[in-house]
Design goal:
Distance between the termini: 50 Å
Helix content: 55-70%
Structural class: mainly alpha
Order of helices and strands: HEHHHHEHHHH
Length: about 210
Amino acid sequence: MDIPESPAGEASAPRTQRLSDVLRALVRPERDRVALGNVTRALKERGFGALMLLLAAPNLVPLPPGTSTLFGIPLILVAAQLIVGYRKPLLPRAIRSRELSMQTLATIIGKALPWVRRFERLAGPRLWYLPQRQAEQLIGAAAVLMGIILILPIPFGNFLPGVAVVLMSLGLGERDGAWAAAGLAAALASVGFVATVFGAAGLAIVGAL
């Protein structure tokens, strides 16, 4: 999977790497597989927003069954740490040791990069009315809920939660209240979708009795 090159002119960008550049650097064609722990270590200095974004991004592209669970459980753990107040995300060894093929990682990042770059161009500190701690707790709680939905066996139920977490993560990383609010709105829509699915299933079961 080819990873898009950085747009012209980014070489003269500030010293702090943008998230899109960090994501590109994760893809190492000379390797066949990569442990999730290596990915999280590379993103750790970018904080919770970057790691939650990467854990949610796979749900935006078609991937083999079970992938949403593979990423949903770490997402719940990371988001819960954000609620509690950890300053850096941590994952259990059993999850850190799980491996992805480099081709899968390249596919995920290759699909996510164009969107991340668009958001980076549009994002910036604005409309950030809540104190940082309260904002982190709110986003963390919503991300935990989205992670729970991701591990449920609901057909086509992973896209909206993935979008919600990506938007909230970008909002958190850039202190952009507009993107964070859009992510929370997508989270509410996701909850509504799940409630509709379970409601319809319940009615079908009652009707069959």
